[in-house]
Write a structure and sequence with these properties.
Blueprint (H helix, E strand, L loop, with lengths): L2 H7 L48 E6 L4 E6 H6 L3 E9 L2 E8 L4 E5 L2 E2 L2 E2 L2 E4 L2 E4 L5 E2 L5 E3 L14 E4 H7 L2 E4 L8
Parallel strand pairs: 2-13
Antiparallel strand pairs: 1-2, 1-12, 3-4, 4-5, 6-7, 8-9, 9-10, 10-11
Length: 184
């Protein structure tokens, strides 16, 4: 998540200062172009990459059993809009909803329910809104306005963000949200 979005969500956040008399310089990224989407170089040798996505593309991954899973590539999510909602049945009988924000460069997966009630989400006026009550939700899965204000969606506990090459290595039978390979 981008710093400005985190700070908007958590204005009281404290950070480690980069102003240290010696040691690591926290002001600069020490790995050069390692994170560049098209850079195939990894820190550890890898015999063969899954070429369905660029190796360094970030994905939100949700594991399933036996090496299966679902990957939500950031490039695909971004190609769908500034704010995106994706409903999926990633875990078989338990539906999930993914919230994406281009501004934050963040994707988060939730179980779409609150107070025992199943919810369906859509993007309205640039934000996440549940169809059932019209409540408005933030990227952290909290209702910030409407009848469900103050409620929180349960986050998918085993979902995480990774580079595509790492996700696909640990989840070789993964499904992938389809879309473009590049955003221009």
């Amino acid at each position: 998540m981008r710093w400005r979005t985190w700070k908007d969500l958590h204005p009281e956040t404290l950070v480690v200062s980069g102003l240290q008399p010696r040691g690591r310089d926290y002001e600069s990224y020490p790995y050069g172009d390692y994170e560049v989407v098209d850079n195939p170089q990894t820190l550890f040798p890898h015999p063969e990459f899954d070429t369905r996505r660029p190796p360094k593309e970030r994905v939100l991954g949700i594991p399933r059993e036996n090496g299966f899973g679902m990957a939500f590539p950031f490039i695909v999510l971004e190609s769908r809009g500034d704010v995106v909602v994706v409903h999926d049945d990633v875990q078989g009988t338990r539906p999930v909803v993914v919230f994406w924000s281009s501004r934050a460069q963040a994707a988060v997966a939730y179980h779409p329910r609150s107070g025992g009630r199943a919810l369906t989400f859509e993007v309205r006026d640039g934000g996440f809104v549940d169809v059932q009550t019209g409540s408005r939700w933030n990227l952290e899965g909290r209702a910030v306005a409407g009848p469900l204000e103050g409620s929180a969606l349960p986050q998918v506990a085993d979902a995480y963000i990774a580079f595509w090459f790492a996700w696909a290595t640990f989840h070789p039978n993964t499904d992938v949200l389809s879309g473009p390979l590049r955003v221009s």
